[in-house]
Amino acid sequence: MSPEHLLAFDREHLWHPYTSMTAPAPTRLVTGASGSRITLDGVGDVVDGMASWWSAIHGYRHPALDDAVRRQLETMAHVMFGGLTHEPAVELAARLVDLTPAGLEHVFLADSGSVSVEVAMKMALQYQRGTGRPERTRFLTVRGGYHGDTFDCMSVCDPDGGMHTMWSAVLPEQVFGERPPRLDTGVDAWAAGFRALAAEHAGRLAGLIVEPLLQGAGGMHPYPARCLPVFREVADEHGLVLIFDEIATGFGRTGTLFAADAAGVTPDVMCVGKALTGGYLSLAATLCTGEVARGLSASDSGVLMHGPTFMGNPLACAVASASLDLLSTGDWAGDVRRINAGLQALHRIDALDVRVLGAVGVVQLDHDVDVAKATEAALAEGVWLRPFRDLIYTMPPYVCSDDDIARICAGIAAAAEVA
């Protein structure tokens, strides 16, 4: 089909994330991608300031990742994981156990980030059942969070300003503490309130789930590393399973390999995804400690009650290991520092707030963004951005050059001016 026919069929029949089918938002046709750039029909090459929703950290068509997929195809693309195993899954699990905080030694390979969070929440619930506390069925979290679009995940997303408020009447009722403060000076007061809330509800809580250091789609809100030990202490005091959702923050995005590393805190359960495969295929993982594994195994089922059809997909596992190879042999930390330095130019933009953490740059306006106008303005600067609510932000590939980052900053400035 011609580009015109493709876009027409898309408009009539294809749903896109958070868009209407009867009044669809404009879409652009991608005809190729390489390095830090995607090619748009009628526009040409533009820098992808979003890294395909934060996943394509090595850029597009990376030779090592392409080769990993080709080599795996010579053996098998997929095989069921029930009763079977294979080298790509075992190798990836070994790598993850080695890279993540010490003590996370059991790996569940899920097929998306949202599913990995569902699995984490099931782990906490089954752990409480297995340790004789089946009445503990609720979760403690903080406002401003986002953990995915599936059902239990929605229940621990922000209940008021989040994307899932329309479902509040049918979602499980969770316990929400105040959002962590932006500045270190506010941590003590916040911690006191959070500890008091946990103590008030402890008898019905199974787990505590947060995005460490950076709340992503809930508002791109960074907070001090000093908050992470507070979460650990509260979980220990009340017998809660501490879950760190590192879908967005894992694999270097905030400046340490995992956000948990910034404070030396080991959660009981950790979720990773997005950048796990370098943006090539959908794959996530839920890791847990031996204590959690033993506890849930003592529950009435005796087994973890989850098993996706495409669990441990060999293609995804193979390219994920190749992506981890690139991280371990390259200078991802240096790249993130370099990107961070370039993103400091965002502070020159006149806006309500500007914040930069690791390879993340956020400009917050005092009004909701006109996405169509902002997108066009960024494209005129040669940059693809996807603003939401009152935020224009970037989480670019680590392979971006200094010129790419300067262009992204120019694109954000242009978008902010018209939005």
UniProtKB/TrEMBL annotation:
It holds the Pfam family Aminotran_3. Keywords: Aminotransferase, Antibiotic biosynthesis, Biotin biosynthesis, Cytoplasm, Pyridoxal phosphate, S-adenosyl-L-methionine, Transferase. Pyridoxal 5'-phosphate binds at residues 113-114, 245, 308-309. The keyword Cytoplasm applies. One of its GO terms (molecular function) is adenosylmethionine-8-amino-7-oxononanoate transaminase activity. It is an enzyme of class 2 (transferase). It comes from the Bacteria. Substrate binds at residues 53, 146, 274, 307, 386. Its main location: cytoplasm. Its cofactor is pyridoxal 5'-phosphate. It catalyses: (8S)-8-amino-7-oxononanoate + S-adenosyl-L-methionine = S-adenosyl-4-methylsulfanyl-2-oxobutanoate + (7R,8S)-7,8-diammoniononanoate. The record marks 18 as: Participates in the substrate recognition with KAPA and in a stacking interaction with the adenine ring of SAM. The modification N6-(pyridoxal phosphate)lysine is found at residue 274. It is found in: Cytoplasm. Its EC number is 2.6.1.62. Pathway: Cofactor biosynthesis; biotin biosynthesis; 7,8-diaminononanoate from 8-amino-7-oxononanoate (SAM route): step 1/1. InterPro entries: Aminotrans_3, Aminotrans_3_PPA_site, BioA, PyrdxlP-dep_Trfase, PyrdxlP-dep_Trfase_major, PyrdxlP-dep_Trfase_small. PANTHER family: ADENOSYLMETHIONINE-8-AMINO-7-OXONONANOATE AMINOTRANSFERASE. Catalyzes the transfer of the alpha-amino group from S-adenosyl-L-methionine (SAM) to 7-keto-8-aminopelargonic acid (KAPA) to form 7,8-diaminopelargonic acid (DAPA). It is the only aminotransferase known to utilize SAM as an amino donor. HAMAP family: BioA (MF_00834). Homodimer. NCBIfam families: bioA, PRK05964.1. Belongs to the class-III pyridoxal-phosphate-dependent aminotransferase family. BioA subfamily. This is Adenosylmethionine-8-amino-7-oxononanoate aminotransferase. It comes from Amycolatopsis thermophila.
